Structure formats: C-alpha cells, structure tokens
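Hi Y.,

Following your request, here is the sequence exactly as I used it, all 124 residues.
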Amino acid sequence: MFLKYHLPAILYATAILAVSCIPNLKTPEIRFLTKDKVAHFLEYAIFAFLTFRSFAHLGGRKRTGTVALLTLLLLAGFAVVDELLQGFIPGRHSDILDYAADLAGVSLVAIILWLIRRRQAGTY
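Below is the corresponding structure, written out as tokens. Let me know if you'd prefer a different format.
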C-alpha cells in the first residue's frame, strides 16, 4: 500500500523541492498567462492528484471532503515553502503569481476529485 499510494506523492514532493533548488534555472518572463504559470498549475495539479490519492488511502474510511481539505491545506503550505525556498537560491526568486498558479492547480483537482468521489458514493 505504501509503495502504491504514498511513495509517489513523497517522491513527487522531493522532485519539486529538488528542482526549486537548482540555481539560475531559466524560466520565461513573468506574466500571469505565460508557460511558466501553466507549468506551475500543471505541476501542482499532478501533485494534488497524488496527495489526494495518498490521503484517501491512509487507513480507515475518510470522508471525501476531509481528504480534499487536507490535500488543499497541505499543498497550500507546501507551495508557500517551495516559493520561499526559491528566494534563497542564487538566480531564483519567489513569485506570488507562481503561488497563485500552484494553488489554482491544487484547488481545481481537489474539487474535481471531491465531486467524483461524492458521485461514486451516491452522496451527490
């Protein structure tokens, strides 16, 4: 169970932090709808899927709303740490719009998965 549900989320989190620590990483110019923001959105959307799946299989029966909320809260905090970390890496900077794109990806996936699981459970 750990290898199937939890390890992918842990490895993905590790990969995000590893990439964030690369000095002078080249990214496109900062404007809200650039490839950089789409990349942030997708990166955290995938992370939200993996985290939601991990929380849903932590043991015991979890309410779907609880799983979605835990996913949103954990990844909102993780994204803050990720952005702050980048502020200490040479050639990198923190960006509130990157954080907004991260949070948008997490929110959309958490809501979609919450709705899907509610519908499957017949509580819709």
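The chain is about 75% helix and 0% strand.

Thanks again,
Q.
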